[in-house]
Structure formats: structure tokens, C-alpha cells
Amino acid sequence: MTMTDRLLTQGEVEHEIVRLSSLLEERTGEYADLCMSEAETDIAYKRRRDTMLMNLSVVAPNGTATEKNARIAMVCADEYAEQRLAEARTKSCKEALLSLRHQLDALRTLAANIRAQT
User: Fold this and answer.
1) Which of 4, 33, 55, 100 could lock onto 24 through a cystine, CB 3.0 to 4.6 A?
2) pLDDT 10s digits, 96-117
């Protein structure tokens, strides 16, 4: 028999609230770290991109904007990929935080319903 096959006790709901609250706290710290990492990779990418743009303006002043952008994209591909991956990790963690919050909200509702029934 699983938890969904029977009624939950107030203690079980409270235990799950404490467990999820702890997990939410851990993931919040992780999210802060991921935000910092994302910012650092964004800075590195933009610094490299802007440096390349300035260099191309000196080295190839007659190149078209499309040519310059293509060269910059080729040279900065690794930094761009790192920036995008860091952004994806941050978004993924944020979604996990939102899911935890929704689960906690549902458990709070269950706890209130159990209290009202007893």
C-alpha cells in the first residue's frame, strides 16, 4: 500500500513539509551559486565578444557586419556555449524551486484539511 492508497496522518504531512522545506532551502543556495556562475560566464563571453569586435574593426574595417558577426561567433563559440549552458542550469534549478514551492503549498492545504477534520 502506498501513501496515495490511504489517508495521510497529520504527522506524515508535517514530516513531508519539513523534508521539502529543507530541500527547498538547499536548492535555494544552489540557485544562488548557479546565478553567480551564470553571471561570470556571461561576463566572460561578452568580454571576449567585445574584444573580438574591436579587433575586427581594426584588422578588417571594410568587412560587413554579417562577416564580423560570423567571425566573432566562430572565435567565441566555446564561451557562448558555456554561457548558454550556465543559463540552462539556472533555469532548471529555478523550475525545481517552483515545483518544491507548489508541493509545499499542496501539503499545507492537506494539513489544513486534516486539522479541520479532527
Assistant:
1) 100
2) 999 999 999 999 999 999 888 8
- pLDDT tens digits for 68-94? 899 999 999 999 999 999 999 999 999
Q: Convert 30-89 into a string of H (helix), E (strand) and C (coil).
A: HHHHHHHHHHHHHHHHHHHHHHHHHHHHHHCCCCCHHHHHHHHHHHCHHHHHHHHHHHHH
CA distances from 42 to 28, 55, 59 (A): 21, 20, 25
Residues in CB range of 110: below 8 A, 6 or more apart: 8, 13
Q: Please, what sign has the CA dihedral across residues 33, 98, 95, 83? A: negative
**Residue 13, Cβ neighbours under 10 Å: how many?**
20
* Cα–Cα distance for residue pair 86/22, rounded to 1 Å: 24
